[in-house]
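SEQUENCE-TO-STRUCTURE ENTRY
===========================
What this section holds: a protein sequence and its matching fold, both as plain text.
Tokens: labelled as protein backbone structure tokens, with as many entries as the chain has residues.
Question of interest: how does this chain fold, as expressed in backbone structure tokens?
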Amino acid sequence: MSIAIALHVMSAVIWVGGMFFAYVCLRPVAAIHLEPEQRLPLWSMVFQRFFPWVWMSIVLLLITGASMIIDLGGMAMAGHHVHLMLVLGIVMMLLFAHVFFNPYQKLRWAVRERDWITGADALNKIRFVFRINLALGLFVVLIGAGGRYLI
């Protein structure tokens, strides 16, 4: 169980921490200092490096989360905080899959074609979903850290 917890937390930190860095730190600086011709390729390359880590995190979160739930005796034995984390985690995963298969692919195409208007629109859609997923992710981290005592 301790290995599952460690991998679960590490996966959440990689995903949520990466979104925090991208949204709170990198985005404002890139928006101020870079023109679309530089900003959009930067984001495309950042996502190209970050998204495989997110996919790996999702797989580990699902495997370790399921194994911990089984160790607890199933969902019937899990606390309300576990149910809430599971639901919110699945919502986050679905939102990420949408970003990956839709606006991110459009961003990559736009950067290849140097279509900065389409690229900016795709990046805005990614940013919108990142804002939601970051808020959900931070909330899930709070639930994971103290939900047993709060809920």
In short: Residues 8 and 61 are 5 Å apart (CA to CA). The chain has a mean pLDDT of 96.
